[in-house]
Amino acid sequence: MFEIVAVVAIVLAIAAAIVLILAATKPNTFSVQRATSVKASPEIIFPLINDFHQWGTWSPYETRDPAMKRSYSGAASGKGAVYGWDGNRNVGSGRMEILETSAPAKVVIKLDFFKPFEGHNTAEFTILPQGDATDVTWVMHGPAPFISRLMQVFMNIDRMIGKDFEAGLANLKRLTES
Fold it and tell me: Measured between alpha carbons, how far is 99 from 42 in angstroms, rounded to an integer?
């Protein structure tokens, strides 16, 4: 019996060591990016991103908790606009602040998550005309602390966040092309 317990303990220790080694090999930063082409002008798309009050019309995160508490402060839109949220476990809590805006081409947002995991990232939207359409790119990047890299051993952050970005961009496309 002791031999079986010892073998199980050794196997578990080796598995834990492998997971820790795999986590240590992950990059200490991450980036998720998605893009779409929209048949609308940048001047139509830009205000929907540059004004947090408009995010309810297209952001995939806005519908995950109907009882989510939202707060707005700072500027009404553009640089200095602040949006805070506090919701269920699906949305957690956090804060966004627009750091830079260049109408109608770019919005840079400081994105702070407090729950369920703390994280401090940057989100960027670029809106570039391409003929009769506009290319819209949504990027989030930031540091990947060890706990994040440990989670990445078991889940694909790009695929997990990327599907939300794809949904949000599809919502922007649907909203602005109609």
Answer: 19
